[in-house]
Amino acid sequence: MRNLLAIAFILGMFFQGFAQDKTAEELQAEKAALSEQISALQGELDPLKAQVAAIDGQLEILSGWNTGAFGTIGFNQSTFNNWIKGANPNSTSSTISASFNGFANRKEENYFWRNSGIINLGWQKLDIDTEEGEDAGYERVADVLRITSLYGRNLSPKLALSAMGEYNTALLANFNNPGILDLGAGFTWNPENNLVVVVHPLNYHWVFGDLPQFDSALGAKIMADYVKTFPNGVTWRSNLSAFMPYQSQTPTLREYTWTNGLSFSAWKGIGVGIEYALRNAEVEFDGTQSYFVLGLSYAL
Q1: Which residues have CB under 8 Å from 201's CB, separation 6+?
Q2: CA atoms of 290 and 120, how far apart (whole Å)
Q3: Domain extents for the chain?
Q4: In angstroms, rounded to a whole number, what is the distance separating the alpha carbons of residues 64 and 105?
Q5: What percent helix, strand, coil does the chain show, rounded to 5?
Q6: Are 138 and 124 in contact (CB under 8 A)?
Q7: What value does the CA radius of gyration of the chain take, rounded to a whole number of Å?
Q8: The whole model's pTM is what?
Q9: What are the pLDDT digits (tens) for 89-129?
């Protein structure tokens, strides 16, 4: 029995070595044949994917309103007690930050209506001498409220006439001071379910508040929103909103906001989230603003 096993083992190794002894030309031919098979299968898969996308569109129409919410909460705490190497041996600092994104969308055969709201809040506390026994208290470092409503009538499956309103201000302090309101009309392009591009060449830009040097203006409004869900519960969202006035003004009313969020779901909608935003608006600040939030993410 052992002899038979040994002979079988030797023959297997021999035939395996023989099978692997192929020329480069033979391997290239085998690779080309496999590539042709993959291309043929891909050609069969593409129509099936198109059918699935069409069914998803029909289900979205039948489902009525599609609502949801997601965001990120971050917290950081540092405490030093008689830490001589530090600049402030007895000190404490903490940061609390939170972002909230909510949406309510409706899609019908002839029209769509997309609504969204964004809130970003943050507080920071720094006490450089805890031995005094006084609490320094929290200072507000972030305060953003942005509401958008987009309505469109379909001209084709991917193009629509649309109207949009967008309001941007602070929530907890200096509400509507400044406040920025955009109302405009134009076109919306929806090349795929994950991407919406808005181009409104007719848009009026109002600026409210105690800064009379900032006037209202007529210009173009551009917005792009992209959401992608990857395997294993990873979601990425990128949103760009910009206004360009037709008349050159000093100070300028040109502005843009670009927000990116990435979340990793771990358990029942809870995971790790990252959100980063850039904003340039001279009506608020002469320079580029930004914020970064890292913490627990949630989806409702």
Answers
A1: 186, 220
A2: 12
A3: 31-63, 64-299
A4: 8
A5: 20, 55, 20
A6: yes
A7: 29
A8: 0.72
A9: 777 778 888 888 889 999 888 999 999 999 988 888 877 76
